[in-house]
Structures are given as C-alpha cells and as structure tokens.
Amino acid sequence: MFSVDRKRFWLVGLNAAAGTFVLLFAGMKMFAVTAIAMQNIVAYVIFSLIVGAVAALLVYFRLTIAFLCYVAGLVLGFMLMFRAFIFDKSGWGDLIGIVSLMMWLLIGLGAGFLLQLVRHLYKRYKK
Q1: How far is Cα 127 from Cα 105, in angstroms, rounded to an integer?
Q2: Which of 74, 84, 76 is nearest to 27 (CA)?
Q3: Residues 27-46 pLDDT 10s
Q4: Is there a contact between 108 and 80 (Cβ–Cβ < 8 Å)?
Q5: Integer CA distances (angstroms), 53 to 29, 47, 70, 87, 126, in order
Q6: What is the rounded distance in angstroms from the CA atom of residue 51 to the CA atom of residue 105?
Q7: Beta-carbon count within 10 A of 78 CB
Q8: Distances (CA, A) of 32 to 39, 106, 107, 120
Q9: Out of 15, 62, 84, 89, which residue is the most buried by the measure of CB atoms under 10 Å away?
C-alpha cells in the first residue's frame, strides 16, 4: 500500500500546501476571473497551510487510508470548484466553487477517518 517515510511528513505537508495555493490562485484568477486583493492571498495562504498541516499529520500518524481519502476529497473538490467556476453563469459560481471545495474536503477527511476506524477495529477483533 501507500508508504511515506514518517521522517519526511513535512514534505507531504509542504507539497499539499503549495499545490493547494497554486490551484486556488490559478482557479480564481483564470477560471473565476475575479480581481484578487491582498486579503484574498492571505486567505489562500492560511487555507493552504491548514490543508498541508492536515495532510502532514495524517502521514505522521500513519493513517494511510484517511490520507488517501483526504487527497481524493481534495482532488474532487478542486475539480468541482473549477466546474462551478466555468459553467455557472448566475454570478454565484465563485462562492459555490469554494463551498464545494471545502465540503468535499471535509467529506474526504470524515470518510477517511471512518474507514481508518473500521480498519483498526477489524484488525483488532480479527485476532
């Protein structure tokens, strides 16, 4: 299965934070075509650092199933965010996109923790 050296968990966190920031910035600049102020950049950095910290903690504590579900939720959230940016013509696309990103991120994290718990209980009671 997926394996990352526990000593290099911070690399996973930095990569997740950097990727999240780049995708947020590029999505808002190119797809949503909105003006980006300094407050927006600060918010993107804070959100990206939170995403990176959660990813790093999941790797540090060796919760591989939770990490993979979290990353899947992140990828799905970005895809749906970009879709909302591109296809929504009502003017609410930017807000709907950001909310869907956060929703799918939380769904991925919750499902990952739930599946990790099921795996732990299965291994525990299998003995």
Answers
A1: 34
A2: 84
A3: 988 887 778 899 999 999 99
A4: no
A5: 25, 10, 12, 31, 33
A6: 9
A7: 20
A8: 17, 23, 24, 42
A9: 84
